[in-house]
Amino acid sequence: MTNHSIAPPPELLQRLLDLCDNSVEPSWHWKTVDKATALLAEACQHGADQELEACCEWLKADGYPGTVIDLRAARRPSPKPPSLKQQALCALIDGIERGGHDQSDIDTIRRAIEALPE
Questions:
Q1: pTM
Q2: Which of 22, 36, 41, 79 has the CA that lies 20 to 30 A from 111?
Q3: pLDDT tops 70 at residue 30
């Protein structure tokens, strides 16, 4: 069985150090809590992904390839598609940033407005 190290990759560690006041001797005073929280969540996700891959390899090696598919589906479900409201907000923002809305933006916003109760 392969040895799987559950550790964040060097790029994540460097980004963590960059968030510190002094990257040579880190004082661990965060410049922004939001960035640190997101980075730590990403590091945890990386470790969970490595663990999932190790489990999938083990199941394949033991002759359970169907279980690998089920395990992946259970642990990493497909993301839920954005709601019509979210799509309309994105279309509105994208159009503003582009300096104008295209027909697709207008259609999405129109569908969202039509879906609103009277």
A1: 0.46
A2: 79
A3: no
Rounded to the nearest angstrom, the gap between the alpha carbon of residue 79 and the centroid of all alpha carbons in its chain is 10
pLDDT bracket for residue 40 (50, 70, 90): confident
Q: Among candidates 112, 111, 109, which has minimal Cα distance to 93? A: 109
Query: Token pair for residue 46?
Result: 């990386």
Name the nearest CA neighbour of 43 among 4, 76, 15, 83: 15
Residue partners of 88: CB distance under 8 A and separation at least 6: 108, 109, 111, 112, 113
User: What's the rounded mean pLDDT across residues 36-45?
Assistant: 76
Whole-number Å distance between alpha carbons of 58 and 68: 9
Question: How far is 113 from 98, CA to CA, in rounded Å?
Answer: 22
